[in-house]
Design a protein that fits this description.
The complex is a heterodimer of chains A (159) and B (394). Chain A has four helices and seven strands, in the order ααβαβαβββββ. With 159 residues, chain A is α+β, with helices and mostly antiparallel strands. Chain B has an eight-stranded antiparallel beta sheet. In chain B, strand 4 and strand 5 form a beta hairpin. Classes of the chains: A alpha+beta (159), B alpha+beta (394).
């Protein structure tokens, strides 16, 4: 059983994560991850068939830091920018044998292009493994599994 | 070819390096392309047999806008059919991939064997006396394989596959590790808001200019070749020294070979009209593209390893495939942005004009060798397009 205070801490992490992406603040996004930490965004079509290819795969803290650099420096000024809003709903939560907290959530991401046109960017779930240290929560592993196999535009920002 | 006159549709510019922008967005031209390009005398790449490796495995795709179904038969043959029941035309297989012992239409339970034969039609005692099951097998689509890559064509006059592939064959074989015994690793799929011709019109000129990663990472100068075949296919293949560790990235492994003693390779084979076979460092991908009307193109990036790879190599290929050269790839994301912007820009008047590698007053004829950084080779593709479409030059 997870106590109410811990649940609040977990939700604060999800809120911090959603806010970072809403602000397109990649450094704040990276700061949601523990060290070591990992971020993988894949699609259900691959996941259900045990196929390893993902849309994004940062399997180390170094790779997470490099993704910040891609978005903020390498791709700067070339892509069509967009806003995204993450709607996250925790559906399951439990403590694992290694002490990490496993959280499963539903995810819906809406996006708005720079002309102000909005739509659904992706629907899926988060499988998170979260580390609690000194009362603060960070993602040890965040795995996004998208039901949306073909997103309506190319993904610049992580989901 | 049909007898539709194209004289009134469009006049093509006299200058060899110019392309009228209206071909990128006009619905009437797109409709004609479905007939003359996607129904024309070329092969379209739709799968590798590693994606449907066992008898009973199937995959769905499109040929132009025709839904098609690839089925791995009990005899090991991959057959391609129009993906519709031969009774009332119900779309037969609806999933991207699947496995079945037979294929059944839910409407009236007509059932088809893996080789397409009609094996069940409930109530057939009440059918007309001249009804024969043999006449209602799934409608075959002409197909052929090269090293396990499955191609389809809607035309009976398309040359045999290996003749059509001509000088690309050794390069395809090299990307597929000689024998094409691949292991499927997964898909990335994306829709670009662009005409299929813009998607397939990428070239060597833009690489170091659009993709800042090459500059920021101080990519070493590559040594390679770019050429056009007589059938308007393009090969751009290079090897380059290891990328120096300057500290720009924390993890350089995405840009490195698994065996550090090997030089990184980059090979892009663009088959007319819009199939791409790519090898980026250790990532092997087949990119199947499907037009969705004049202003959208859906691309399925399928990634592979080789059956003899050890698990470390497979892991390396998965990491690179997931991050390097796909729709959100470190090196390639900017391509998607340009595809979309080309489409919007195509609604301005006038012509597109290719320059790099073009010689004044001289048309480019294939086969031909080009500088790696030229864009002129695409004019060979455009000339084939113009000819197939029947557009006359001014």
């Amino acid at each position: 059983m997870i106590d109410a205070g811990t649940l609040t801490t977990l939700d604060e992490l999800q809120n911090r994560y959603a806010r970072a992406l809403g602000l397109r603040d990649m450094r704040a996004w990276a700061d949601c991850f523990d060290d070591p930490g990992s971020y993988v965004c894949t699609v259900r079509e691959n996941e259900d068939n045990d196929l390893g290819i993902a849309m994004m795969m940062d399997d180390s803290s170094d790779r997470i830091q490099d993704r910040v650099k891609y978005v903020t420096e390498v791709w700067k000024g070339t892509f069509e920018d967009y806003h995204c809003r993450h709607f996250v709903h925790r559906t399951r939560c439990g403590i694992e044998d290694d002490g990490l907290i496993a959280v499963e959530s539903n995810l819906l991401v809406a996006y708005t292009d720079m002309k102000g046109r909005s739509g659904v960017l992706a629907v899926g779930i988060y499988h998170d493994r979260i580390a609690l240290k000194a009362g603060a929560a960070r993602f040890r592993a965040k795995r996004v599994i998208l039901d949306t196999t073909v997103t309506p535009r190319y993904l610049v920002y992580p989901l | 070819m049909t007898s539709i006159s194209t004289d009134s549709l469009l006049r093509w510019p006299a200058r060899f390096n110019e392309i009228p922008k209206e071909v990128f967005h006009r619905p009437d031209i797109y409709e004609l392309e479905l007939e003359r390009i996607f129904g024309g005398p070329d092969w379209q790449m739709v799968a590798h047999r590693a994606e449907l490796s066992a008898p009973g495995d199937y995959k769905t795709a499109r040929l132009g806008e025709i839904p098609i179904l690839l089925v791995h038969g009990d005899d090991g043959v991959i057959r391609v059919f129009a993906n519709a029941c031969t009774h009332r035309g119900v779309h037969l297989a609806t999933c991207p991939r699947g496995h079945a012992a037979s294929l059944q239409c839910p409407y009236h339970r007509w059932e088809f064997a893996l080789d397409g034969a009609l094996i069940g039609a409930p109530g057939s005692a009440d059918f007309p006396s001249d009804f024969r099951k043999e006449d209602y097998a799934l409608r075959p689509i002409r197909s052929a394989e090269f090293l396990g890559i499955v191609f389809v064509t809607a035309s009976a006059v398309t040359p045999p596959l290996e003749e059509w592939l001509d000088d690309t064959k050794p390069y395809i074989a090299k990307v597929l590790k000689g024998d094409g015994r691949l292991r499927f690793l997964g898909y990335q799929k994306a829709v670009y808001d662009t005409n299929w011709k813009s998607y397939s019109d990428n070239e060597g000129y833009h690489g170091p200019l659009l993709h800042a990663a090459f500059r920021m990472l101080r990519f070493p100068k590559a040594d390679g070749v770019q050429f056009m075949t007589k059938n308007a296919h393009k090969v751009n293949s290079a090897q380059f020294p290891a990328v120096p560790h300057t500290g720009f990235l924390k993890d350089y492994s995405l840009l490195e070979t698994y065996d550090k003693t090997c030089s990184p390779q980059n090979t892009i084979i663009s088959l007319f009209p819009l199939s791409i076979i790519a090898h980026n460092v250790e990532s092997i991908s087949l990119r199947y593209a499907f037009p969705l009307g004049p202003a959208q193109t859906e691309v399925h990036y399928a990634y592979f390893g080789h059956q003899d790879d050890d698990e470390g190599m497979i892991r390396h290929r998965i990491r690179q495939g997931s991050n390097l050269a796909g729709p959100s790839g470190f090196i390639t994301l900017e391509d998607g942005a340009v595809f979309n912007r080309l489409q919007i820009g195509s609604h301005t008047s006038g012509n597109v004009a290719f320059q790099k590698g073009v010689k004044a007053g001289e048309p480019i004829t294939a086969p031909c060798l080009l500088d790696k950084g030229d864009e002129a080779g695409n004019l060979v593709r455009w000339e084939r397009y113009r000819t197939l479409m029947g557009f006359d030059r001014d």
